[in-house]
Amino acid sequence: MPKLKTRKAASKRFRVTSTGKIMRRKAFKNHLLQHKTANKKRNLSKMAVVDESDAENVRLMLPYL
């Protein structure tokens, strides 16, 4: 059986926790930050769990994680 290739773009964007959940970064934290409150920016810095409807596609992109 041949080895499966990992999608390198996905491996840079997603992390898998020890319990098997897939974590991602939140959007809206790249630019236009001057009008956002410090509290909003702090919450955007935290990791979020990938929705279960998308998790299956992410798992296919990351076969060995």
Secondary structure elements and pairings:
Layout: H1 8-13, E1 15-16, E2 22-24, H2 38-45, E3 48-49, H3 52-61
Antiparallel strand pairs: 1-2, 2-3
Question: Main traits of this protein?
Answer:
65 residues; alpha+beta; 37% helix; Factor Xa Inhibitor; single chain
Order of helices and strands: HEEHEH
Span between termini: 18 Å
- Major sheet size, sense and barrel closure: 3 strands, antiparallel
What class would the helix/strand composition place it in?
Answer: alpha+beta
Neighbour order of strands in the largest sheet: 1-2-3
- CATH topology (fold) name: Factor Xa Inhibitor
The whole-angstrom Rg is 15 Å
CATH class: Few Secondary Structures
Annotated CATH architecture: Irregular
How many domains would you count in the coordinates?
Answer: 1
Number of helices: 3
Shape: elongated
Let me know the average pLDDT: 96
Query: Which strand-content bin applies to the residues?
Result: 5-15%
| DSSP summary, beta strand count | 3
Unreliable spans: none
Helix proportion range: 25-40%
Put the structure in a nutshell.
This protein is an alpha+beta fold and 65 residues long. Helix content is 37%, strand content 11%. It has a single domain (8-61), classed as Factor Xa Inhibitor.
